[in-house]
Amino acid sequence: MKLLIKGAIAILLILGVAKTFQDHDVTTEATNYYNQIREGEVLQNIENINFDSLKNLNFDNLNPSDFF
Fold it and tell me: Where are the beta strands (DSSP E) in the chain?
């Protein structure tokens, strides 16, 4: 029984990682971040974050599928 549960959890983790890589173009994002770091734009992006919008997060409608 433990083997089935461990297998199911492993499959769910693998599917979540695969879906993440399908939804995001990881190589393009990594290249973009690398270019920003090389050109010094990262500090400018960090300084321009609007923290007021983070106060209005609604955790009541949070679904586990939002993380996959």
Answer: none
Token match 């007021």: residue?
Answer: 52
Nearest to 8 by CA among 16, 66, 68, 65: 16
User: What distance in Å separates the CA atoms of residue 5 and residue 16, rounded to the nearest whole number?
Assistant: 17
Section 17-32 average pLDDT: 78
User: pTM higher than 0.85 for the full model?
Assistant: no
Band of residue 46 on the pLDDT scale cut at 50, 70, 90: low
Contacts of 20 by beta carbon, 8 Å cutoff, 6+ apart: 68
